Amino acid sequence: MAEDIISVSGEHYVLATAALAAEQNRIVKHEDTFAVFDTHGDVRSRIYSTQGLFHNGTRYLSEYRLSFEGKRPLLLSSDITRDNHLITIDLTNPDLIMGANRQIRRGSIHIFRSKFLWKGRCYEKYRIRNYDLDPLSFTIAITMASDFADIFEVRGMTRAGRGEHGEILVKETLMDIPYLGLDKILRRTRIEFSRKPDAIKPGRVEFSIGLGRYEEVEFEVMVSCREEGEAAQGQADSYVHAYRESARLFRRARGRESMIRTSNEEFNNLVERAVSDLRMLLSEADGGILYPDAGIPWFSTPFGRDGLITAWETLWFNPDISRGVLEYLASNQAQEVVVEQDAAPGKILHEVRKGEMTNTGELPFSRYYGSADATPFFIMLAGDYLLRTGDTEFIEMLWPRIREALVWIDEYGDIDRDGFVEYERMSAHGLQNQVWKDSFDSVFHSDGSLAEAPIAACEVQAYVFAARKQAASIGKRLGLEKIAGDLLEQAEDLRKRFELTFWDDRLPGYVLALDREKRPCRVRASNMGHCLFAGISSPDRARIITKALMGDTFFSGWGVRTLARGQPRYNPMAYHNGSIWPHDNAIIAEGMARYGWKAEAGRILEAMYHMSRFTELSRLPELFCGFERRPDQGPTLYPVACSPQAWAAASIFSLLRSCLGLTIRGASRELHFSRPYLPEFLDAVHIRNLMVGDGTIDFSAIRHHNDVSIQVTERKGELSVSINK
């Protein structure tokens, strides 16, 4: 994921003005709207800068605080439903002495808050009940503000100028806060109350409430994010109706997911939360295509690389995500050279952004193509999707886009015509490093000096190798034998040159990259594991890399670090230079499993499982620190990691599939297991409703002392199952 905008000393950086890891936030999302609340259900961005209600890359609500007689209520409990749909909060009053003859003992009043998002609106219900023996009167107040900050301002970027805040409109039951941006778009935050406030003024409402013994009162608050020129949101629904409609769509979002249950309830919680996170992050794009937004709060938007990897991780149990990702990226493939967007014909999208700063051109990311690896990964996913589903009709429709991606690899990706794909930004505001480790300091030499572009990263060459092989498979399926043969020859030629150029016996392993002078970056980095994933490595070298990655300089006990301990620039708290990323580990584990190293892949699965036991909601974050695992202690969290993050959530499904050695061939309706393996914490894995072609299958993987057996419990359609032990 890109640390892609904020400028510190001329380099791209995310300012850590507050530690997300230290906050227990409650996060909800629907389409292009998401909210980050604290455990009370409030927004306090002056304390925690990341909180707020966001829509289309803009913060529409920067303060929203409930008070009881001028004091903050006491928190009893705070939760979010397992489907990530509804936040529920239980509060009570503190001890209050309001005069000689008037006091309210703590715990007399119960305040229940529930809130969710739907169609650009935040719906909230308050239910307040008196449990005191006597009637009580008190004042509830809500203070609110809208700073209309662009998401990049929230991340820490300082702007030369901003738009104009208009006069706040106040009526009996609503408040309307306007802002005219530098992009000439009028944005409004409208706050409506089902109960008439007893006092209302800009930024504050008060309700005077009197309740008899056990008496209860309810009211609702609706906050609407309105953007001039945006498609109409439609008539606002009541809380009850909006909740029913949104809950119905949450249930429908399953698509063709299979069901996963295991013998380990804590692992089940991890799987269930991951499924819910992925559903929440799916948004409709380009006329209804479902695409997984990358993560909250920084990356709640489509990213090419993230979407592709998320789709690959989930392909086996829900191929609908892959189809949506392929369709969306194909429709947004670059068609011409655009310097400010780092775009060239055939190149696959890096990211799309909305918001004032991209609209004005302050940033180039409204549609940005600064990624060297998304294009070959697009072809790789297309081939995997065809194998998994047998959907030849869709892939045939996609074939012209695949051909254009191959042309980009040859004509634009290989900048100096040496047979390797390099990257170098064209845009002055673009990313310096255009691979998944896209921090400014993530590609360097053994003395710590930064590599100069054009840069040929090792994993990009591996992806190009795999892309050509997948394109060849697609070509054969489409009857294009000559094209398929040429692609296989190109792939084999690349493999030979890659092994000669990138392998270094002194590491030992593949060098991180080649710089502009073709000098190798002799650095021990996790990128070499991606070479196993793509299948470019020889078996002997795969063994050497696996041993290295599972050694204690790489493997912390919580997973494989992005950079080996002892390397220059190693820092376990760095974004890409020593931290641990779940998706990186999933790709590495798949590579190890590909070459038969199942126990090692299982260790990575087990590490991710244990990591999730220490996180709130059993959720795998974007990344965490690479410190050594300490006995009886949890992992060290990264301060500004996104959570939920799509490719982190999806990693658990890929890790499970890698251990089982599961391959699905949709066209021939085959299910194949290669040396299935389960780590000790999993005695059994049960898969239900797994779609294979036009049929479905239920099966269980049972761990025994020396192996894993596969037991088919139900089969619909003519499906075959084979096991290679």
Written account of the structure:
Helix 3 packs across helix 15, helix 5 crosses helix 7 and helix 14 runs antiparallel to helix 15. The chain contains 15 helices and 37 strands. The N terminus is likely disordered. It is an alpha+beta fold. The protein has two domains: 244 residues, Glycoside hydrolase, family 65, N-terminal domain (Beta-galactosidase, Chain A, domain 5, Distorted Sandwich); 408 residues, Alpha/alpha barrel (Glycosyltransferase). Strands 9, 10, 13, 14, 16, 17, 18, 19 and 22 form a nine-stranded antiparallel sheet that branches.
The number of helical segments is 15
Please state the CA-atom Rg, rounded to the nearest Å.
27 Å
Structural class: alpha+beta
> Got a strand count?
37
The percentage of residues in β strands lies in 25-35%
- What can be said about the biggest beta sheet? 9 strands, antiparallel
Poorly predicted regions: 1-18
Under CATH, the topology of the largest domain can be stated as Glycosyltransferase
Shape: globular
What is the helix content?
25-40%
Tally of domains: 2
Text of the CATH class of the largest domain:
Mainly Alpha
User: What integer is the average pLDDT?
Assistant: 93
> What would CATH call the architecture of the largest domain?
Alpha/alpha barrel
Distance between the amino and carboxyl termini: 37 Å
